[in-house]
Amino acid sequence: MTNARARLxxxxxxxxxxxxxxxxxxxxLLGRGGLGADIAWFYAAVGFVSLLFPALLxxxxxxxxxxxxxxxxxxLAAAVAMAAAWLYAARNxxxxxxxFFTLWLLFLCCYMPTLALANTTTFAxxxxxxxxxxxxxxxxxxxxxxxxxxxxxxVNCAYWHDGSFGLTLNDMHPLAQYRFQYTPGMLLCSAVxxxxxxxxxxTLPSTPLARxxxxxxxxxxxxxxxxxxxxxxxxxxxxxxxxxxxxLQITNGFATPFISHFMADxxxxxxxxxxxxxxxxxxxxxxxxxxxxxVPLAMNRLGIKWCMVLAMTAWAxxxxxxxxxxxxxxxxxxILSMAVYGAAFNLFTVAGHLYMExxxxxxxxxxxxxxxxxxxxxxxxxxxxxxxGAVVNRYCQWQTVTLPSGRTQPFFLGDWTSPWLIFAAYSxxxxxxxxxxxxxxxxxxx
Length: 446
Fold this sequence. Notes:
It is built from 19 helices and four strands.
């Protein structure tokens, strides 16, 4: 395979662009569509799906079908589901929960396994080239973040209304309310890029399947991979990952409605930051792109334990800065909150995937990658997001406001400081748990 790293970088760019089109601004669409009180359920669904599908499809990729082929089929199915969600939302300005949530759930069932499958495919192809994932993977994974950011900028600026298409950062523009960050256009963008990703996976070479070790039920189903829990250091890591996974979806679900709500405040209504919440939030992914390159250094110098401690501390700082930031004199706090996201996210997720790669056997690598997704994005994110949603709904409610421009728009208004402080305290507690309870095995990095 020629130029493996470049080809895999394109894969990550496309794959995460699918996610970047809708993940951080879905709450805006839900608020406008009458489902603002249900935001937590849509983000908790990410966790519900991760309870089963990443591990199940990881097992399929380990045993029955090459990871790259499973990856492509998942992207095709996800694109179809997202296109159906776009059609429903475009035809129903006031959406009903059941049909739209069902379509969103179908998309997640197909898309979420691709996050682990892409890692499995990449690790296998790198191994064929004699390259160490710990050295090579971060430079490839960073292109996923670039794709995510590019997609966020697209939906933030692009608008379509009555045959008129354009780009604008000015929220006072006559067609600004039709930007994709507020409309079903975000779903259409996601579906189109998903189809392109499927087509691209067809160009990737296949990798050999893991050789079956037996024909018992645990062997055939892949359940033998759960023997990983017999290893104390992995059991500690995976159980703590459940608690840490709570942090992963909170800002994805609530940061853009939080930033946008300042538009309803006369003091900040004309702020460019408040009117471009998706682009401001994209600074988090820019930070992620920079910090991902530091993960190998952190893993080699500090080890997985201190990576986790620093990650949880960074999450706490992120929430604290949200609690006291605003688009005016406190804009620097919002920007700094975006900057620390890179450390918070990468030191947990990327380092965690590398740690599982180091400590799972050849026959269960795909299942191992799915297992860390199950524990963090599954159990942790599902329960945690619902609790976080209840906390936010306790202090804030959606209200329709007439802006100085004359247009009316719903905003998530209320006391945002209290929820952010609660989330910060939880993250600091997790940092202490990692510090005193987690005792990883020291392993040579491959």
